[in-house]
């Protein structure tokens, strides 16, 4: 299966990086932003490098659990977590701009996916191309929801 190594999107937000960071780094709120994340449970009191999460994801009527570990945590700049089951890394990068913050979300698979993930995507999610297209749309939705929340307050 050909898996795209990078899917990403960016949005400019009229809010300072500290405000955007407060939203992005609160992984308990991920289900408010991402259309695929139904619940993200943070294991521990706070999010930091090494924090683990248990996640319930969904697409249509399909549901599946995943676990993740925060692999990069640089306040007001970068947060990344790796999904154990498929080795994908989801990253949020914040850059200050004249208007506020440029927020970029990306999904990479630096070491390829697992066989289990490949079969699951092929059999349950319509294949890699269809699934990756849905992830791209999901990134856009996530970014727009974070933007709306950051600019509303």
Would you give an account of this structure?
- The chain is of the alpha+beta class.
- It contains four helices and seven strands.
- The protein has a seven-stranded antiparallel β-sheet.
- A hairpin with a 2-residue loop joins strand 6 and strand 7.
- Helix 1 crosses helix 4.
- The longest helix is centred in the C-terminal third of the chain and has 25 residues.
- It starts with 5 loop residues before the first strand and ends with a helix.
List keywords for this structure.
seven-stranded antiparallel sheet; 4 helices; 31% helix; Alpha-D-Glucose-1,6-Bisphosphate, Chain A, domain 4; alpha+beta; 153 residues; single chain; 7 strands
| Biggest β-sheet: strands ordered side by side in the sheet | 1-7-6-5-4-3-2
> Into which percent range does the helicity of residues fall?
25-40%
Poorly predicted spans: none
Number of domains: 1
**Taking Cα atoms only, what radius of gyration do you get, to the nearest Å?**
15 Å
The CATH topology is given as Alpha-D-Glucose-1,6-Bisphosphate, Chain A, domain 4
Largest sheet: 7 strands, antiparallel
Instruction: Give me the CATH superfamily.
Output: START domain
Specify the structural class: alpha+beta
Provide a quick synopsis of the model.
By secondary structure, the protein is an alpha+beta fold. It is built from four helices and seven strands; from the N terminus they run βααββββββαα.
Question: How would you summarize the topology of this molecule?
Answer:
Blueprint: E1 6-13, H1 17-24, H2 30-33, E2 37-43, E3 52-59, E4 62-74, E5 78-83, E6 89-97, E7 100-108, H3 115-124, H4 128-152
Helix pairs in contact: 1-4
């Amino acid at each position: 299966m050909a898996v795209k190594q990078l899917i990403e999107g960016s949005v400019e937000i009229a809010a300072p990086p500290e405000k955007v960071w407060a939203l992005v780094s609160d992984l308990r709120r991920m289900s408010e932003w991402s259309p695929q994340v139904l619940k993200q449970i943070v294991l521990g009191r706070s999010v930091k490098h090494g924090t683990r999460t248990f996640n319930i994801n969904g697409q249509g009527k399909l549901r599946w659990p995943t676990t993740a570990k925060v692999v990069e945590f640089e306040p007001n700049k970068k947060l990344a977590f790796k999904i154990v089951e498929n080795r994908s890394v989801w990253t949020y990068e914040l850059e200050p701009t004249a208007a506020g913050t440029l927020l970029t979300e990306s999904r990479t698979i630096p070491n390829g996916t697992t066989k289990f993930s490949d079969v699951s995507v092929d059999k349950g999610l319509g294949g890699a191309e269809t699934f990756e297209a849905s992830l791209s749309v999901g990134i856009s939705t996530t970014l727009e929801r974070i933007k709306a929340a950051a600019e509303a307050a």
